[in-house]
Specification:
Rossmann fold; alpha/beta; 42% helix
Length: 233
């Protein structure tokens, strides 16, 4: 039976790079995102020449009530889960001036949704005695940038949640890692002071995940920081 990976935000950017790489590595991938056209295109690319069955799962992570049923469907279809990558994220600039509704949306997508995905995925991982949860956080989960307080709060929360779950499930055979990249070459990097070739690439995050998955079961990596070569605040 092939190993199964669930990747949220899999239709483009970092998520698509991760999903593509894991499919190349033989994983059966459950692709999760809210745009069906983008998901179908990603699934078509993954299926090309692989012979492995991947699934398209249309889901808006801000609709947190839909996550449990969606995960039930994914687990029923694929039969197991070996890797969960909580990658999908929302970003709206703003600190205390941000409307509360925008804060609530970011908290739902960036924190509540990963919580619910882990809530569904960790019991079967614990039962099989293996698995790896990878939460794509941000450098903003470690540094409180001025003017981005709402986003920072959601990512600090994700890093803290990851550490708690890491400590809870490590001895049960399940690894939990948060990856905290700085500026990354996606559509969200529009405010970067660096050129596209001076910042982190989606492929760098994929290769970090591949490294994590190659380590022996005796090893745990709680957190990985990826920073741009040029020094920025």
């Amino acid at each position: 039976m092939p190993r199964v990976a669930i990747v949220t935000g899999a239709s483009r950017g970092i998520g698509r790079a991760i999903a593509t790489g894991l499919a190349e590595d033989g994983f059966e991938v459950a692709l999760v995102a809210r745009n069906r056209a983008d998901l179908d295109a990603a699934a078509s690319d993954l299926a090309r020449g692989s012979g492995v069955s991947h699934s398209v799962n249309v889901l808006d992570l801000a609709d947190t009530a839909a996550i449990g049923p969606a995960m039930d469907g994914i687990l029923t279809r694929h039969g197991r889960v070996d890797v969960l990558v909580n990658n999908a994220g929302a970003y709206t600039p703003g600190g205390l001036d941000l409307p509360a509704a925008e804060l609530e949306t970011m908290l739902k997508v960036n924190l509540v949704a990963p919580f619910l995905f882990m809530q569904a995925a960790l019991p079967p991982m614990k039962a099989q005695g293996s698995g790896h949860v990878i939460n794509i956080a941000s450098r903003a989960g470690k540094v409180g940038f001025a003017g981005d307080g709402a986003y920072v709060a959601s990512k600090f929360g994700l890093v803290g949640l990851s550490e708690s779950v890491y400590r809870e499930f490590s001895e049960a055979g399940v690894a939990v890692t948060s990856i905290c990249p700085g500026w990354t070459n996606t559509r969200l990097a529009f405010g970067s002071p660096l050129a596209p070739d001076e910042i982190i690439q989606p492929a760098d995050i994929l290769e970090t995940i591949r490294w994590l998955l190659r380590l022996t079961p005796a090893v745990r990596i709680r957190e990985v920081m990826l920073e741009c070569r040029r020094s920025i605040v």
